[in-house]
Write a structure and sequence with these properties.
Elements lengths: L3 H6 L4 E8 L4 E5 L4 E8 L2 E5 L2 E5 L3 E5 L5 E5 L3 E8 L11 E4 L2 H10 L11 H15 L2 E2 L3 E2 L4 H12 L7 H8 L3 H12 L3 H18 L4 H7 L5 H12 L9
Helix pairs in contact: 2-3, 4-5, 5-6, 7-8
Length: 251
């Protein structure tokens, strides 16, 4: 059986792991010597780093650079495929980011997870890995993320919102949770995230809605589940954020 230590220490350019995780599973903060690509064949994950929070629905993966500390949570049952890649293939972007997974890249990821740890780099397996690396490096970055603050008091608030995007608490309540005055809280939040609390929560809600829609939820249920009082308001916000209506969004 492959262990994460073996995968990190492998001399092969890419090694992979396939695993199944139950709803509610949390892989607490950790890092790897290698680049890590997390791809869920089914199910939805959230990934939180010191800088950013992501929700990753199917058809997308998260690129985690080597040594970046991250925490992974499973919103429901998740069928996960993880690639561990030689750090020499790092992108210019030093931060985690979401990438699209098209049919070819998906097939390559699934195939590589079947390889032995000591696969033949000069044979068929090596050729497939070379193509996989080329496809990964060619993927475009998808801007689905919410920046995380560094102040632990603000992080506490953000984690509450991530856990329950439909939470209707107002700024005064969030300031109380942070143990700060309203004025200090709002100023600090904007300084550290580049946006106000309401806009940040809206971003988290839209990311959660993407995950719900990608796993079969209809538009009305997705809107209500993330805290919108009306489907029309949700659709208008979704259109402004992503350029298409939720009913036309293609996953």
């Amino acid at each position: 059986m492959k262990s994460t230590h073996d995968l990190d220490m492998s001399q092969r350019p890419v090694v992979a792991l396939a695993d199944e995780y139950p709803a509610g599973f949390v892989d607490t903060a950790h890092s790897h010597e290698r680049i890590q690509i997390l791809y869920a064949c089914s199910g939805v994950m959230s990934v939180v780093t010191d800088k950013t929070s992501f929700v990753i629905p199917p058809q997308r993966a998260v690129w985690i650079p080597s040594l970046v500390v991250h925490e992974v949570s499973c919103r429901g049952p998740v069928s996960l495929r993880t690639l561990y890649i030689d750090p020499k293939y790092e992108r210019d972007d030093p931060d985690c980011h979401i990438v699209e997974v098209g049919p070819l890249l998906r097939a390559l990821i699934l195939e590589v997870t079947t390889f032995d740890l000591d696969y033949d780099v000069s044979g068929r397996e090596g050729q497939i890995v070379d193509l996989l690396i080329s496809e990964l490096l060619a993927t475009s970055k998808v801007p689905y993320a919410a920046p995380m603050p560094s102040d632990p008091r603000l992080v506490r608030v953000c984690r509450e919102i991530i856990e329950n995007p439909s939470d209707q608490r107002d700024i005064d309540n969030w300031a109380d949770l942070a143990g700060m005055s309203r004025r200090s809280f709002t100023r600090a939040f904007r300084r550290e995230t580049g946006m106000g609390v309401a806009v940040w929560r809206q971003q988290v809600r839209l990311l959660e809605a993407l995950s719900l829609l990608s796993t079969g939820s209809n538009v009305t249920n997705a809107a209500l589940d993330v805290g919108y009082d009306s489907t029309s308001a949700f659709c208008a916000m979704f259109q402004r954020a992503f350029g298409v209506s939720p009913s036309k969004y293609v996953f």
